Batch of 4 targets.
Target 1
Amino acid sequence: MSKIFKIIKREYLSRVKKKSFIILTILIPILMAGLMMTPLLLSRYKSGSTSIAVLDKSGLFKNKLDNTDNLFFNYFDGTLEELKQTYKSKYKGILYIPVINIKSPQGIKLYSENQFGMLHSIYIENQLEKIIEDNRLKEEGLDREYLAKFRVNLNLDTVILSKEGEKSSDSKLSAGLSYVMGFMLYIMLLSYGTMIMKGVIEEKKNRIIEVIISSVKPFQLMLGKILGIGAVALTQIIIWLILGTMISTSIMLIFLPEMLDAQSAQVTQIASANVNVDNSQIYEIIDSLKAMNIPLVLSSFIFYFLFGYLIYSALFAAIGSISDDASDNQSIAMPVILPIIISLFIMINVLEQPHSPLAFWSSLIPLFSPIVMTARLPFGVPGWQLALSMFLLAVGFVFSVWMAGKIYRVGILLHGKKVTFKELKKWVFYK
């Protein structure tokens, strides 16, 4: 046991002390913070104003186009040719509106020396469409505000009927949480598994492994490497959580006044429009989170991450021991990588049908269950299914470590030979 601990310590310290580990561990939360801050910073930035000369021959749009903070409309009389000669001194473009038939408007053009941005073009189109619609409604004797009274905004309440009684649920919230947790497991299993495989290949290629094997058993070396890199992964995740919480809190404190001002302005606008504010959705989300049993979801997520990592890391370690040529190992590793990729596709189906036969059976198979069952958890899983899945995952862990140990024991000292699947079978069942 002391030898395994020494290997764990060596694997852990050798990776944690690397500059790449330190830089990556610190850089990722900063990059995530940058992604969070970019929209807020861009909202502060105001580009130069754009003025457009409007030549309205129809008379339908006179003084009806709404200006924005950086887009202004100025109305002119005269001819289009005159404006084309003089507009560049003050304006970025010309909006020409001929006499049109509002039932089939044609011929409206936006002239400019340079191409307009997408947002400005869409805004102008929306303004023109709104004014044309208002004129059509007016011809029919209808009013936009009167029609708005008949619009319905319906929120469908979903309720789960269980033995404990009725529970509120939110499929969108469950799907969002399922996707985040499932995708996180997909990334971590693939990245840390391949890290173990590359580490074994590197040691085997440099012949360091022969020196290490002289003092420890191959199985001890494999187990120590798996647990050591697992400790590295756990350390990195904990640091990311701490830094992410600190950075998110700092961002909230910096931008909180602006967010409160925006919320205050929105409340004022709603009040002036005599619209009743409905807070029921907030309470529904809170009830849905309570019904979801968040402690069970998070604890199960940790369980499936740990055992999923142990299964796949053992298999990747066995693959890394087969050959010291990285290209050969990549091709042999495909049977191990494919279940992870397939699990991701099954997870996408689970978001739509979390209780289908495909979701049920794949959440019991140890190679699929870490991602699939994690994705099913927010939708609610019967206790017996969760217990059976965890039991089978633990059995799969024992079997995969046993099988990987058999392959690792022989392959780690093998050099200069391509190994076939038939030979791997002999290594596994050799007594």
Note: Residues 265-280 have pLDDT under 50 and may be disordered.
Target 2
Amino acid sequence: MMNTAWQRRGVLAAALGAPLVARGQGQGFAEGRPVSIVLPYSPSAGQEVTSRVLTDGFTERFGGTYVNEHRPGAGTTVAARHVARARPDGATLLLATNVTFTMAQFAYKNPGFDPDADFAHVSLLSEALYFVAANPKWASVAALVAEAKRRPGELVYTSWGVGSVAHLLGVDFCRRNGIEMLHLPFNGTPPALIEIIAGRADVIFTTMAASLPHVQGGRLRALATPSPNRIPSFPELPTMVELGYQDFVMLPWYSLSAPAGTPPALLAQLEETAKRAFATPAAAAKLAENGLIPAARGRADMLARIVADRRRNRELMRVAGIQPE
């Protein structure tokens, strides 16, 4: 008669596919239950398409069922706390963002999780392309800076919240140019864009996905991109680095993490599968439609990125005068 341990291995193999048994590991997702991919925001295109590419890769390799579980709130910390406290069996995974692991700890006195100790990080998945998007009256970044110097504190940049990526990029931009601009935060990206379109504000550092329809419609003008390279679909748009802003690069990201204690063999399979899933031309095309680029380069790359982004964000939050709440 088959013993209990071996019965459990059979159920796991059914959820993930034969390769796990063939390799003699006997570990997998959720013992046949659906796997929850926990998302830190309400439904939005960037995280949805990233999750879809990931779960398509999982399904192709492992089989099984994958469900998006939205847990928005408190700067992604609600979702992160949930996953940090979950069983480390592969049943609950976190599709996090750079906010989760490089910003939240500076915005909240007690985010409810340790971004390093409570997670087994797997890989970055995708990166978001950004525009420096302005009211069409501004023809260039140089023109905007010149006017800001002539009228200190009168020009306005918007964001989707204090301590957001858009806010910190504005802080960095002002600091580098020695200018003062008024920061006007909103609860979400759409109203922040509308304020600029209406002419009541001047510029925003925002995702390509959110601003693209307005840029294409002539309601906003893309002045530059804080990406390391020019965007293929906008070859005429200069990077901020090309304009003389050394290291002014921001590629916010989505990533995959599991609860600390998840078996190393399973983590290795998740990492390899994620890398394969995001390396296909079909995946790149899906992401590009939503202003994203593939970034699944594995665990070591993700850990290095966390360290670098955390160092930068800590300093920018200090300059912005943001105190943990």
Note: The chain has 13 helices and eleven strands.
Target 3
Amino acid sequence: MIHWLAPWLFSDDVCRLFGYISFRAAGAAVTAFLFAVLFGPRVIAWLSRQGVGERIDGTGSQRLEALHAHKKGTPTMGGLFVVGGLLAASLLWLRFDPPNHFSWPGVLLIAGFAAVGLWDDWVKLRNPQKRGIGKREKQGALTLVALLASLWLLGPAALEGGAGGPHLYVPFLKDVSLDLTVWFGLPFLVLGVLVLTGSANAVNLTDGLDGLAAGCIASAAIAYAVITYAVGRVDWSAYLLVQHVAGAGEMTVMMAALLGAALGFLWFNAAPALVFLGDVGSLGLGGALGYAALVSRTELVLLVVGGVFVVEALSVLIQVASFRLRGVRVFRCAPLHHHFQFGGMPETRVVVRTWVVSALLALCSLALFKVR
């Protein structure tokens, strides 16, 4: 939006700055951060007056309930001002004119996922007997939003810069690509739904300790800011041996806004947390990461960038499957961060060490671009 307004507000020399992705990315990061920091206290106060406090539900584990008893009543649904900052910064600093075909779908996807999370949070917090909306309802709503976004990405207008449509590229084997447009694009639609909903749910599962999810999102956002910028430039993509996607560089601005929003939330969510994300925040932010992976055609690299989220989600799946099939729990408690808590590790140490691992994984993911 600011790119349209700039000629009316600034001189020609200043207007040129708004044509640079790097300048607009910096502006988006600062805008999202300031939005979160300025509106955060007001939203937290409003949530407190509404009685929107965290319920401590250890799903049958009295030890987990005891470990988190001090958090009971802390306002949740802080994702309202986090996603609000992300969307406001994106609307302000993104370009929406061709060939930037990815901007509007990304904004709408984040808003849609956040709306599903808000629905789930509200039911959960206003009806003590319920644990949110039903799993089928929640996954169905996320799937519908993800499917609509994937259909747009499958369209020739959205991916006109990419060699015949979406392909799946394999790290270490860059000469190998799988055409996802066969069978009317069904493989891409399935992959898109899995990536978008899987990323959102994985971030949701990780959001269990003060500052844990926000810190990991920040490092992942930095990695994808670099990745989307690289694949959006003809010269960089050729040098790094990755597929060029016209317009993908605009997602650098969105990832910068995601970084600013995550840091702004961490301002209030660092231990001891003043507010929690809630599903409205975790689903919206997780969806943004998945969308960047789809646009840049680095869905497999997302497994490395978001390695922490992947492991957290896998720990839950393994725990549930093992208990149902064998009656044995693999971990002391799932998701994995609770396993370390049960082992006696202080919460802040679990969080900081996970941040370190997340940052290292983000660096490793960038190294994949130069390896054939």
Note: The chain has a mean pLDDT of 84.
Target 4
Amino acid sequence: MTTPRRWWPSTIRGRLTLLYAGVFFLAGAALVALTYFSLGQVLSHQLTVQGDITHQLPEVHDAIRAQFQRARDDTLNTLRIASLILLGIVGGIAGGLGWLLAGQALRPVRRITATARRVADRSLNERIALIGPNDEIKELADTLDAMLERLDRSFDSQRRFVANASHELRTPLTINRTLIEVALTDPQANESLRQLGARLLAVNQRQEQLIESLLTLASSEQGITKRTPVDLAGIVRQVTTESQSTAQNAGIDIRTHLQPASVAGDPVLLERLTQNLVDNAIRYNLPEHGWVTVTTEAIGDQVHLTVENTGARVSTSEVPSLFEPFRRLRTTERLADVSNASMSRGAGLGLSIVRAVAHAHGGDVNASPREDGGLIVRVHIPAV
């Protein structure tokens, strides 16, 4: 449904200018009308007086009255035309002055908007710090500064929590994995103990991956504090190379079409984004003769990363829910190499992390089903 176009300006400055000009025109038109009416009354009174004087001279009365009537009409017509011309000229000047005055009055608002945009794109450390009289605009700026201060403290507290949780959650899992591995190296361990140890290692690895995914999701949703130039094509090349053995065991062919794609961001998060996309494309694929195609390219001011894979048919209605945490497709998972713990059924955080990382880099991600089955996932990130 298209939004109907409005005939009035869409900016406050334009509306204020239109308001100033409209008020001036109304006031000027009222002044012209009053002047025209008053002058008409005065001239009519003079015409009446002259008529009374010449009333006793019938031979000249009609001629003088007609002459005064023409003079009165000519004077009023000249006044009307001159007033309308001057009203238009002065109205245009008033509109220009109104535009300048509106811009001057809205300058603090533009400063507030610019600061809010910089804060949204970079960090919460900057403040508006508006200097001026204690009017409504300064009150708005001070309120926004107070809100930014609270948000900054909240995000800083969340960062510290993630950092502490990262250590506190990883340490016991690392200790458990080490203890299990040491127990399995015991030459006196029987076969049942070794099988139990292998299962515990798989469970431990799955817990490590889940915690790592949750921490990555939390850190990426906080935004990126430091950006470095990185070639996304190089990250994709590294990830696909490392995933070749897993894909070959699953009977999946990985194809790449990589063009230089420079972005500014966090290389670790971008690598995790790419790894999640490739892992999902391998995990949810055909049991045999499947393929994954990864493409990078730079178009205009955007870098595009596209991951396309074969697989089961996906309903269009299911696609939006894929990017929600702990959501999976109702279709069956891939059938090959399920013994590999790193490629077993995931926790449903892969695409959630992809979306969070893309948004943290000022980009976006979308997916669409293939006609023959599988998905096409496209990530768009601003280029350097």
Note: The chain has a mean pLDDT of 80.
